[in-house]
Amino acid sequence: MGAGHCFAASTLPEYEFVAVCDIVDSVRDRTSADFGVRGFADTETLFGSGLVEAVILATPPGTHVPLVRDALSHGLHVYCEKPFVADARDGYALGAAADDANRVVQVGFQYRFQPSYEKVRALIDAGTVGPIFRANLVATNWFRPQSYFDAAPWRKQWRQGAGGVLMNQAIHQLDALVWFTGLPSRVFARATRARHGIEVEDDVSAMLEFPDGGRGMLVASTVDPIGWDRIEIHGEHCSVIMRDHNLRVGTFDGPAQHLSDHSQNQFDRVAVTWEDIEMPPASPGGFDYVLEAHRDFARAVRGGRRPRNAPEAATCSIEVANAVYLSAIRGEPVTLPLAADAYGPVYERLCSGDLALAEPSVAR
User: Fold this and answer.
1) Which of 117, 223, 232 is nearest to 172 (CA)?
2) What order of strands is seen across the sheet that includes strand 77-80?
3) Which of 30, 113, 224, 317 is packed most tightly, with the most Cβ within 10 A?
4) Are 134 and 196 contained in the same domain?
5) Helix 287-303 and helix 2-11: axis angle, to 10°?
6) What is the 3-state secondary structure (H, E, C) of the chain?
7) Residue 38 lies in domain
């Protein structure tokens, strides 16, 4: 993603790209030469140089907290790649620090700028969906071979990677789900290392309960050769289905509770009218959404407003992921919001190797 962000910084008229920082000499020198910008070997020198007003962080997740904090202390605005932090407590604290410094922090959840996600959010905000009674997420479209983890060992590790599939891949879809539904109130989960030789999880399933009585399921995996990217939002007035960013809206003669109470068709399926909502085609890899996230960041800096993915909003999905890990380790449901010190000690034990996720009972 570092290369992608360099492309964004050099392309968008909202930016003047002036510097790059990397601790690897060859990467720094090559990138500096390719883009005609100054190269820095350490962030402290870059942050204190007076050369920049904002920085884009595309480093391993385990480095984000000190880097964001240091950038803010130098008066800089920050665009930070996902996952923002490992522990939600740190994410909320960094959000408060950004407010205190009157600086903008944008988290790299570009899916929030994907047109079908924006459309779903608009339908929910308009009341078209009605109260949500079920929300399901299947994010098994992230197949990764062992070589993916071996090529960049931080991806295997709790300390540098902050987690596995739920934090580094499916966090995009989880963030969207929480954007639609709000924070669940209870999570009961299972997380395992099903196929890969790694510390972190590669397969997750969880049952979700929401404060208003709504329910849901979450499944995420990097082990499925054939996977799905699917979010379902079922409300009292209609259902919304997204598959691979394609959007369908199903309406029925509701509300759903009325159908349950009064329908005389005991075995017939409810008549549903489906509408396929056409969306503009995505660029390869969806990079146009990344560019839009950068535009929003620049507009927020210039306009003195919050970006769409401000820390307090972007940290909600981290809190759900923390709850999933806690539930998987404890083998029992976990309630949200989490106490501030609920996950930190457990995370430290995972990082130190004193605690490990289960492996499946079946042989590989």
Assistant:
1) 117
2) 54-57, 77-80, 105-107
3) 317
4) yes
5) 60
6) CHHHHHHHHHHCCCCCCCEEECCCHHHHHHHHHHHCCEEECCHHHHHCCCCCCEEEECCCHHHHHHHHHHHHHCCCEEEECCCCCCCHHHHHHHHHHHHHHCCCEEECCHHHHCHHHHHHHHHHHCCCCCCEEEEEEEECCCCCCHHHHHHCHHHHCHHHHCCCHHHHCCHHHHHHHHHHHCCCCEEEEEEECCCCCCCCCCEEEEEEECCCCCEEEEEEECCCCCCCEEEEEEECCEEEEEECCEEEEEEECCCHHHHHHHCCCCCCCCCEEEEEECCCCCCHHHHHHHHHHHHHHHHHHHHCCCCCCCHHHHHHHHHHHHHHHHHHHHCCCEECCCCCCCCHHHHHHHHHCCCCCECCCCCC
7) 2-82+105-111+287-309
Q: Give yes or no for a cis peptide into 337 (omega within 30° of 0).
A: yes
Q: Which residue, chain included where needed, has tokens 């307090």? A: 312
In order of 253, 276, 277, 362, the CA distances from 271 in angstroms are: 8, 16, 19, 42
Convert the pLDDT of each residue in 305-331 to its tens digit: 999 999 999 999 999 999 999 999 999
Residues 170, 149 within the same domain: yes
The verdict on residue 171 lying in a domain is yes
Give how far Cα 49 sits from Cα of 14, 44, 45, 52, 236, Å: 21, 8, 6, 7, 55
Condensed to tens digits (0 to 9), the pLDDT of residues 236-286 reads: 999 999 998 899 999 999 899 999 998 888 888 889 999 999 888 777 667
C-alpha of 272 from chain center: 32
CATH of the domain at 222: 3.30.360.10
Let me know: does 171 contact 315? Beta carbons within 8 Å. no
Residue 95 lies in a domain: no
| pTM across the whole model | 0.94
Q: Quick one: tokens of 25?
A: 């000499």
Tell me how far the alpha carbon of residue 130 is from its chain's centroid: 25
The encoded tokens of residue 110 equal 């570009």
